[in-house]
Design goal:
With about 350 residues, this protein is α/β, with parallel strands linked by helices. The protein has helices spanning about 20-35, 50-55, 75-90, 100-120, 125-135, 145, 155-165, 180-195, 215, 225-240, 270-275, 285-290, 295, 300-305; strands at about 1-5, 45, 60, 65-70, 95, 165-170, 200, 245-250, 280-285, 310-315, 325-330, 335, 340-345. Strands 1, 4, 5, 6, 7, 8, 9, 10, 11, 12 and 13 form an eleven-stranded mixed β-sheet that branches. A two-stranded antiparallel ribbon has the order 2-3. Helix 4 (about 100-120) packs across helix 7 and helix 10 packs parallel to helix 11.
Length: about 350
């Protein structure tokens, strides 16, 4: 993975042209089509077939997608897996991480890639961490040597080396990394490589938000609601100005952590601004927690199986259908989800009424 230091990023040299006649748009579109190139928004497929089908191909340039849910549901796992799926298919990705350092993300990718190669028996995260931490002698100094004898470990490192130049990891800071830093980073990648990267923000509530100029002079402290509004508006503007797709992970408010309710868009921290600005809102819930009681009462085998699945609800989809519930099996021991999920067949409820 290529690591970029935002302090040495060159400043943007171009300004977005904001005013065009419809004629200019028509002519530009015809010019692109005349050389048999695709016109319209660029699309980045997630690699999760059912989700891409609902999103008519994947995440689109100029759109802000939010992924929300309680802790432990796999938001970072999903985002990192989408990043992996994209770079293995030749796309570029920049991952702004406020939660994990470079090495932790690399370890997760090794485990994820090993599972793609060796299946369920692949090397797991504790083994990878131990291999990198404990001295193993001069003949096993490098990564492949440390992982020799593990299931898929050596092959996973080789796979990462094949796409590592396409994945940029940004160790972000809530005290320093604001939307302007993200803009300059994306523009630097595009200038350096000629590629427009897919953008992951993990996670939105930690992005630095500066007060408006007038309030900045008076040292006004923004409320959390105002701060999140500044950030989400900035991310949406950035997606349009730079023609990128942004997937931002979002924490839930206290209401979303309640033991007897299904997490909805209203439960996201700063939800009034989030719901308005986002083009796509995806919400994760444990399947066991939201499935209707009759599916559990009369089949105890189902009850056990539901613990292994998450429900991903498309609560907003500005350019397609919404109110769709998909399910994906958790493979967290392999730092991933099964990508071949499907639509939820069972009835789901907002209030959790079944107790083990």
């Amino acid at each position: 993975m290529t690591l970029l230091d935002p302090s040495i990023m060159p400043e943007a040299t171009t300004q977005t042209e904001r005013l065009k006649t419809l004629r200019a748009v028509l002519e530009a579109t015809n010019e692109v089509l005349s050389v048999d190139e695709p016109a319209g928004a660029r699309v980045w497929p997630s690699g999760f077939a059912q989700l891409d089908s609902v999103l008519t191909g994947g995440f689109r340039a100029g759109e802000l997608a939010l992924l929300g849910g309680g802790p432990g549901l796999g938001k970072t796992t999903f985002a990192l897996q989408v990043a992996r799926n994209l770079v293995t298919s030749g796309h570029s990705v920049v991952f702004f991480s406020f939660e994990h350092d470079y090495h932790s993300l690399m370890e997760r990718l090794i485990v994820m890639e090993a599972a793609e190669i060796a299946g369920a028996s692949a090397v797991r995260l504790p083994e990878v961490r131990q291999a990198f931490r404990i001295s193993q002698g001069p003949d096993r100094m490098m990564m492949e040597g440390r992982l020799y004898g593990t299931q898929g470990g050596v092959e996973a490192v080789e796979a990462l080396e094949g796409y590592c130049d396409l994945l940029y990891l940004h160790r972000s800071s809530g005290a320093q990394t604001d939307v302007d830093v993200m803009r300059s980073t994306i523009e630097a990648i595009r200038e350096r490589t000629g590629r427009t990267p897919f953008v992951v923000v993990d996670y939105l509530q930690k992005v630095k938000a500066a007060a408006p100029p007038g309030e900045r002079r008076r040292s006004v402290q923004l409320s959390e609601e105002d701060r999140i509004t500044v950030v989400v508006e900035g991310l949406k503007d950035m997606s349009l100005d730079l023609a990128v797709a942004v997937l931002a992970l979002v924490a839930v408010d206290k209401s979303g952590l309640a033991a007897a309710s299904r997490t909805r868009v209203r439960d996201l921290r700063g939800s009034s601004a989030l719901a308005h600005e986002a083009d796509i809102v995806l919400i994760l819930n444990h399947k066991f927690d939201v499935v209707a009681r009759h599916h559990l009462m009369f089949n105890t085998g189902n009850a056990e199986q539901f613990h292994h699945w998450v429900v991903m609800s498309i609560e907003k989809n500005r350019n397609g259908v919404d109110d769709v519930d998909l399910e994906f099996r958790k493979r967290f021991e392999n730092a991933r989800f099964d990508t071949d999920g499907g639509r939820v067949a069972e009835e789901l409820v907002d209030d959790r009424i079944f107790k083990e």
